[in-house]
Structure formats: structure tokens, C-alpha cells
Amino acid sequence: MQNALLVGVSSQMALQRELDVIANNMANVSTTGFKGRSTRFEEYLMPTASADTFSGADRRLSYVIDQGTTLDLGQGAIEPDGNPTHVAIQGEAFFSVQTPQGVRFTRNGAFEVSAQGNLVTSDGYAVQGEGGPITINPQETGLSIGQDGTVSTNLGVRGRVKLVTFANPQSLSNAGANLYASTAQPQPAGIKGRLESGALEKSNVKPVLEMTRLMDVNRTYAMVSSVITRLDDLRGTAIRRLADVA
Fold first, then answer.
1. Which residues form the Flagellar basal body rod protein N-terminal domain (predicted)?
2. Among 34, 49, 93, 242, which is 20 to 30 Å from 187 by CA?
3. How many CA atoms lie within 13 A of 225 on its CB side?
4. What are the residue ranges spanned by the domains of the chain?
């Protein structure tokens, strides 16, 4: 009976983790370039006991192990907005930006020109060009960003936005502020990514699907909780009856 309770608790812990992931997805439905995540679980079979005193073979117990989350790299809807500093990625690429914690990666192309003349993200992080940071003087006009990331003004080419890809994008970890961190070395995107100027990629989270998942998790959690409660009551009853003096 104790093992059954532990199995139920392991299921509840896994469901709590899934609920956290769903909540984060729902909170970022309107976040530019956000990529949703889904949970991955694995069945863990408890090894059998090795004692020779048992009359019969032990029954294998199946627990639930949280194996992390999977990043949904599906393309989000691209919506034009006419802003020349805004760009959306079509393909598998990521922007490379410089943060106080080091280089990070994002799909959020809501760029702007800072007071210092640097091309930065909406959070103020410098957008990395293939030759370093991209700087635009206040006197320059006619700013545009081409499909290949080339940044031009009335004075000519000012740089080229750096686009990168990863051999295993699932290794990317969330770093906050819609950024990703990676211990793997990024690779030039090449034909795997191109830009659409004057547009932004919306979140790829599907609210209806997430709400369905949320209801399923709540129902399953309630069911497991009910089973645990009944098992606990049964154990309490058994202990009381065993303690009764005939």
C-alpha cells in the first residue's frame, strides 16, 4: 500500500511540473517570437528485491520520472507592422544578442536603435552583427533590414544581423526575458533562416490546445488525489483494526 501511495505522489509531482509548463506557455501567448514547451516523462520500473525469503516474485512498480521539456520550434504567425527596425525570422535560425550574462539567443525581432546608436532588442541588449555590434548614427536615414540581414541606411551598408542555428536546438535552455542559453557552439544559419522586414513573429503557442491540456491535467490530478486519499483511509482503517483487542 505504501508503494501505491509513492506511485501516486510521483504522478502528482509530474502533473505539477506539466501544469507549470502550461502556465508559462499561456503567460506568453502574446510574447513576440516565443516558443512553447511541452513536458516529457518516462516510466521508471522499480527493481525487484533480491532477498530469497519471499515466497513469490516481487511485482515491478512503475513510477513517473520528469525527463525535462521539449521546445516547440514550429513557426509562429508573421504579422507585418511597417516598422523598419522590426524583423521576423522564417526558418530555424535565432538572433544572437549580447547580455551582461554573455551571448544569448532569441527569436524576438522587435529591434530599435538606442540613444547610443546601437541596434538593440526591446530589452536593450545589443544585437550581434557578423562583424560585431551594429551602429547607426543619428543623422542617418532610410534604415532598412534585408532578407539576408543586411542593415542599410542612406550612407550605405552598416552591418549584417547575425543569424545562427544549432545542431540540436532541444539543448537550448530558457534564460529569461525570452532568451535562450546554450553550451553548444552555434553555427551560421545560411539558408536555414531568412528575415522579413517590417514584421514580427508571434508566439507559436495555441491557446485552445493549452487550455485543453490544462483541463486534462486538473482532472488527472484530482483523480490521483482521490486515489491517494482512499488508500490512506484504507491504511488507517487497517491499522485501527489490527490494534483492536479481540
1. 5-35
2. 34
3. 9
4. 2-73+205-243, 78-201
Q: Are β-strands 102-106 and 94-99 bridged in parallel, bridged antiparallel, or unpaired?
A: antiparallel
d(CA 54, CA 137): 81
Q: 3-class SS at 112?
A: strand
- Please name every residue paired with 129 in a beta bridge, in sequence order, or none if there are none: 132, 161
DSSP letter string, 49-99: P--S--SSPPPP-EEEEEEEEEE--PPPPEEE---TTBEEEEES-EEEEEE
CA atoms within 13 A on the CB side of 23: 8
Q: Which residue spans within the chain are E strands per DSSP?
A: 37-45, 62-71, 78-80, 87-91, 94-99, 102-106, 112-113, 119-120, 126-129, 132-133, 144-145, 150-153, 156-160, 163-165, 173-176, 179-181, 187-188, 193-197, 199-201
Q: Are 128 and 162 in contact (CB under 8 A)?
A: yes
pLDDT in tens, the chain (246 residues): 455 666 677 777 788 888 999 999 999 999 999 999 988 655 555 555 444 444 555 555 555 555 578 899 999 999 999 999 999 999 999 999 999 999 999 999 999 999 999 999 999 999 999 989 999 998 899 999 999 999 999 999 999 999 999 999 999 999 999 999 999 999 999 889 999 999 999 999 999 999 999 999 889 888 888 877 877 777 777 777 776 755
Total-model pTM: 0.79
- Three cell numbers at 115? 540613444
Q: Which of 26, 23, 4 is nearest to 15 (CA)?
A: 23
